[in-house]
Amino acid sequence: FSTAGLVVVPGKYVKAFYVDVEILECGGNLFDVVSLGVKAALYATRTPRITITGEDGGELEFTLSDNPTDVDRLDVVNAPVLITHLRISEGVTVVDPTSEEEQCGPVSVVVGVAPNSTICAVHLLGPGTIGPQTLQAALKGSSVLGADINARLLKKLRQEESEPERRIRGFLG
């Protein structure tokens, strides 16, 4: 994912974003749903444009735009989503396992997948092991599924953004 939009002054100042996640209900895997939520939240994030207005005593002076339409956006189109596979037995995995399902398997593999099907992260969770064939099948499945989920998520985000009468709703209604 492109970090160019975070740079204010190359080599000196960057924008930093901290994302807090509050789980109200989880019917699947926590990593998977949080990756989707964070990508959607960052897609919708708008920050006031920062302009360097001068220098005073060696320190740069910044101005934040007060125009609500003069904003910067993050380019999260290529940000990955996470796909979790729970190994039940060798050759058998469950994708996006619930917390109850996670009690049935000794190990999970969390796979980060970019929209172009590139696997950009792999993390094993739990005390068990995954055989090479099972891992290879999980990676292959994640690559296909991750690209599809990325495409569907971006399509939905763009569709919602283009709605003329877009209603902003909180989580309670």
From TrEMBL:
Pfam families: RNase_PH_C. GO terms for cellular component: cytoplasmic exosome (RNase complex); nuclear exosome (RNase complex); nucleolus. The keyword Metal-binding does not apply. InterPro entries: ExoRNase_PH_dom2, ExoRNase_PH_dom2_sf, Exosome_comp_Rrp42_subfam, PNPase/RNase_PH_dom_sf, Ribosomal_Su5_D2-typ_SF. It is found in: Cytoplasm; Nucleus, Nucleolus. Its main location: cytoplasm. Keywords: Cytoplasm, Exonuclease, Exosome, Hydrolase, Nuclease. One of its GO terms (molecular function) is mRNA 3'-UTR AU-rich region binding. GO terms for biological process: exonucleolytic trimming to generate mature 3'-end of 5.8S rRNA from tricistronic rRNA transcript (SSU-rRNA, 5.8S rRNA, LSU-rRNA); nuclear mRNA surveillance; nuclear polyadenylation-dependent rRNA catabolic process; rRNA catabolic process; TRAMP-dependent tRNA surveillance pathway; U1 snRNA 3'-end processing; U4 snRNA 3'-end processing; U5 snRNA 3'-end processing. The keyword Cytoplasm applies. Residues 80-140 form the Exoribonuclease phosphorolytic domain. Belongs to the RNase PH family. PANTHER family: EXOSOME COMPLEX COMPONENT RRP42, EXOSOME COMPLEX EXONUCLEASE RIBOSOMAL RNA PROCESSING PROTEIN. This is Ribosomal RNA-processing protein 42.
